[in-house]
Design a protein that fits this description.
180 residues; 2 domains; Enolase-like, domain 1; two-stranded antiparallel ribbon; 31% helix
Length: 180
């Protein structure tokens, strides 16, 4: 089997140089996360069943850090987006202006969005703060459905909720944020 340093080399369908062997998860040089390994495994099963699955794109895998102050991200960073040729605008809001974060005493952190100026596409989302690994789901859903910053800005977020900080970040893009 061909190796890439300490990892097994695979093609886009996780097939190794031994055509009858597939490798996923921690064996391959991709994100070392359980949900990434599950996506790889599902892709392999669908490939073997000849269902022509969509490729698992690294930038679509949510990255998470489960510490006291959680961190979660998906998509491209500002520099990666620029390198890919996008004209980007970055918007950000802090949890310190969020009512629920203040009530819970967990108001450290921020939400940052990397947006393509041309279409309003969400290229990347970064959350550092309370329940970041849960909050990233809303942005992932909008991004996966090819929603734009407009759709996020138009969501009426419940109050009080940490999700309001996502709304604030999107409103900040348009200069209409009210809790900053």
């Amino acid at each position: 089997m061909d190796m890439d340093k300490k990892f097994i080399k695979v093609n886009e369908h996780y097939q190794t140089s031994q055509k009858h062997i597939y490798a996923i998860g921690d064996l391959v040089s991709r994100y070392q996360l359980a949900h990434a390994a599950s996506a790889h495994g599902i892709h392999v099963v669908e490939t073997l069943a000849k269902r022509n699955p969509s490729l698992v794109r690294q930038e679509d895998i949510t990255r998470c850090i489960y510490t006291r102050l959680e961190s979660a991200s998906v998509g491209l960073s500002e520099s990666q987006a620029k390198e890919a040729g996008y004209d980007v605008k970055v918007t950000q809001s802090a949890f310190q202006g969020n009512a629920k974060a203040l009530i819970k005493g967990e108001n450290e952190g921020f939400i940052k969005l990397v947006i393509d100026k041309k279409y309003g596409e969400i290229l990347g989302a970064f959350i550092v703060g309370p329940h970041a690994t849960d909050l990233i789901g809303e942005l992932l859903g909008v991004k996966a459905s090819e929603g734009t910053i407009n759709e996020i800005s138009n969501i009426i977020q419940l109050h009080p909720a940490l999700l309001e900080t996502i709304g604030e970040s999107s409103d900040a893009y348009f200069g209409t944020a009210i809790h900053m």
